[in-house]
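All the exercises in this workshop are built on plain-text protein records. There is nothing in a record beyond a sequence line and a structure line. A learned vocabulary of local backbone shapes supplies the integers on the structure line. The question running through the whole workshop is how a given chain folds. Here is such a record, shown just as it appears in the course material:

***
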Amino acid sequence: MILLIILGVGGCKPSATPGELITVDVSASYPQKELILQDFMDVEYIPLESNDEFVTQGHVLAVGNQYIIVKNWHNDGDIFVFDRKTGKGVRKINKKGQGDGEYTFINGVALDEENQELFVNCTPAKKICVYDLSGNFKRSFAHTEGTEYYNIFSYDKEHLIRYDASMSYKDGKKREDRGYHAIISKQDGSVVRDLYIPFEVIKAPAAKMGEGLAVTSIRTIIPNQDYWLLVETSSDTVYSYVAQEDRLAPFLVKTPSIDPEVLLTLGTLTGRYYFIQTIKKEFDFETGRGFPKTDLMYDRQEKTLFSIVVFNGDFVQQQKVDMYSNPINHTIAAFQTVAANQLVEAYENDGLKGPLKEIAVGLDEDSNPVLLLMKYKK
């Protein structure tokens, strides 16, 4: 796999699609369907340990085989390392600052357990800082000139895969002759593979009024079991990237849309269900609200699109599950955090069952959140 990347530094053009190509009509209405998460995913709960040192709001950044990486929602610089199996706190890292080995903001983290390294993406400073898992600084490298990284994932032992979100400020302009998705070196950040998705004009996930700019978050890189899915809002096609074969292929196509433009991204994918989300490119600057989203699901067995709601079967009362926001890696499809006070209240009202009920016994309202992992069924 590495050899293919090193030998193919030139542009990578999409090839023909293997198998079915799904078309999503973003202006259509689809029948409603409800699913129970446990019917199609294996579910694991991990209560994150709470003590005087480990108090976190539970913004999970990465989950590996050994560790869980978490930060707070506010910008205090804390990075919490929890044990993946037990949820016990291992250590807290904080390198917030203006120096070479420090970050001013944590926009994302890629966890590399094979090399025992943590890659912290700091978009304001346009750099990635690399630490060992004890928090010792090892090196840093800048974002490629003219770029601004958004999503980063560990791609293999020697590379990251990243997305350049600088186009958010270039809506309506002609694209640059390069890929906005790319595979980069973990050592110095150099681009070793442009993943070129064809389009002509930039359609950014943003709205502008005068000097005001509102940008919505869209997942542009989705790890699936055997490949990567690459979302580019400027294109009507989502592509799959099969690393072992070093090729891009069309995976999903949306119908064109205008006034308002409707963008599309993907969430969790299973053997049967593909979770798809559409986002209207409209924003009300007076109310501060906008970019309305619609949750869809393609059922490969029925070959039909649905408007979808997924519920967690361990709640007696219906509790929705987010299938879109948090893809993780090639073995764990996605995650969600459940607030301790919500679990305590549900437990006191006989609103829990199964393993979640057992976990709630040991919680109080000030406990750290419980991590829900959604794993592919074996």
Notes: The longest strand covers residues 149-156. The radius of gyration is 21 Å. DSSP finds four helices and 29 strands in the chain. The first helix runs from residue 2 to 7.
